[in-house]
């Protein structure tokens, strides 16, 4: 037996290491980003405890996967990354943690991919309450479990007080695209039908109210939700989807302009067919905003051939996240690269991209 193992000091150190890590500080300090024991305790107590899975538990600097297992899901890899800086951190219907998980899942899903693995990197401001971080990590855990994905690696950094705003989160994700799926904005053809899965602008309106800058009372909640299961339902009914994208920053208007530019076609919308909650309309009228540009975190826009439109619409309506789906317009041959809106009064107006954002820091 190794004599050093009998040393009471060494035994005491080993006992300490075997104890479950616990963050006893009430607020984040620079020590939590130092690379030492305080940082290890933070990672173990908050992140590993919540996100634990066989890949993450190895605590390597990278996650490794069996390629043969990945190929069982399809023949192409989808990879995406996004950062979340929303203010406030908690808002009606969701929070920054759930948003970070669902946002990255949705970026994968609209390519037709099955989301599998995510990363989580956080930048913490010195002074952030530890309890706030616990709530966010727990929310991320719940969102990941609901979506059936695993958070497999990550990183933690702490910056001086005032160098960030409480917490910024970056998530990256990988998924597998099944064989035969080819979704791209460049596929859109004149005559294609444009479909959205429900009311637009709820997330942007919820964030605006949550900031407390307006003396308004409303029950609007963010539409933050994962869309991968809805996408799977759509593709099962019709694999021949031409284009699909989630409408986040810049809203519906920005996505449709991206469609028109990528495919060199025009798009004509019917204002009366676009679903918008009455409360959202009211807020927009008061503030001079346009719901077409308000952010969403659970809405996808689809372009599909007219012959498959009803099949896709029925499939969407059969799913909880698509029950309010609507056909809102069509692709037209000209004017190219332009989005037109047919108003309720029978006139037409151009719906262009905004130079900036109506509401910054909404995701």
Characterize this entry briefly.
This protein has 363 residues and is of the alpha+beta class. Helix content is 32%, strand content 21%.
List descriptors.
363 residues; alpha+beta; 60s Ribosomal Protein L30, Chain: A; Phosphoribosyl-aminoimidazole Synthetase, Chain A, domain 2; 2 domains; seven-stranded mixed β-sheet; 10 helices; 32% helix
Give an overview in words.
This protein has 363 residues and is α+β, with helices and mostly antiparallel strands. The chain folds into 2 domains: 23-177, 60s Ribosomal Protein L30, Chain: A; 185-350, Phosphoribosyl-aminoimidazole Synthetase, Chain A, domain 2 (Alpha-Beta Complex). It contains 10 helices and 13 strands. It has helices at residues 8-18, 37-51, 67-71, 96-109, 130-147, 202-210, 228-237, 251-263, 278-287, 306-317, and strands spanning 76-84, 90-91, 94-95, 114-125, 150-159, 167-177, 193-196, 243-246, 266-270, 300-304, 326-332, 339-342, 348-350. Strands 8-10-7-11-9-12-13 form a 7-stranded mixed β-sheet. Strand 12 (339-342) and strand 13 (348-350) form a beta hairpin. Helix 2 (37-51) packs parallel to helix 5 and helix 4 (96-109) packs parallel to helix 5 (130-147). The chain is globular, with a radius of gyration of 23 Å. The N and C termini lie far apart (57 Å). The model has no long low-confidence stretch (mean pLDDT 93).
Number of helical stretches of at least 4 residues: 10
Instruction: Look at the helices and sheets and give the structural class.
Output: alpha+beta
User: Shape from CA axes?
Assistant: globular
Task: Tell me what the CATH architecture of the largest domain is.
Answer: Alpha-Beta Complex
Mean pLDDT: 93
Total separate domains = 2
């Amino acid at each position: 037996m190794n004599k050093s193992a009998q040393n009471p000091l060494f035994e005491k150190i080993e006992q300490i290491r075997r104890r479950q890590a616990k963050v006893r500080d009430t607020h984040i300090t620079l020590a939590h980003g130092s690379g030492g024991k305080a940082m290890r305790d933070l990672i173990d107590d908050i992140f590993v405890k919540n996100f634990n899975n066989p890949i993450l538990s190895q605590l390597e600097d990278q996650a490794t996967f069996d390629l043969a297992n990945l190929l069982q899901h399809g023949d192409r890899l989808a990879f995406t990354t996004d950062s979340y800086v929303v203010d406030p951190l908690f808002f009606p219907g969701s929070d920054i943690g759930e948003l970070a998980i669902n946002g990255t899942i949705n970026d994968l899903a609209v390519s037709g991919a099955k989301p599998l693995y995510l990363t989580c990197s956080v930048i913490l401001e010195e002074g952030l309450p530890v309890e706030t971080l616990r709530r966010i990590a727990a929310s991320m855990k719940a969102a990941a479990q609901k979506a059936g994905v695993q958070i497999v690696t990550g990183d933690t950094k702490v910056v001086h007080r005032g160098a960030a705003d409480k917490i910024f989160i970056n998530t990256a994700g990988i998924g597998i695209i099944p064989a035969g799926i080819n979704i791209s904005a460049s596929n859109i053809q004149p005559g294609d039908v444009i479909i959205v899965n429900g009311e637009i602008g709820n997330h942007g309106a919820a964030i605006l109210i949550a900031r407390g800058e307006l003396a308004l009372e409303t029950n609007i909640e963010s539409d933050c939700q994962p869309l991968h299961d809805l996408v799977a339902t759509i593709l099962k009914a019709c694999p021949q989807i031409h284009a699909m994208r989630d409408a986040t920053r810049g809203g519906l208007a920005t996505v449709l302009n991206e469609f028109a530019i990528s495919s060199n076609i025009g798009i004509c919308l019917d204002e009366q067919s676009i679903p918008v909650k009455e409360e959202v309309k009211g807020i927009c009228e008061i503030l001079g905003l346009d719901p077409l540009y308000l952010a969403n975190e659970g809405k996808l826009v689809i372009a599909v051939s007219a012959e498959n439109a009803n099949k896709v619409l029925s499939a969407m309506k059969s799913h909880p996240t698509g029950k309010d789906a609507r056909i809102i317009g069509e692709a037209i041959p000209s004017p190219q690269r332009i989005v037109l809106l047919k108003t309720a009064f029978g006139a037409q107006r151009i719906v262009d991209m905004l130079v900036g954002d109506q509401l910054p820091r909404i995701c």
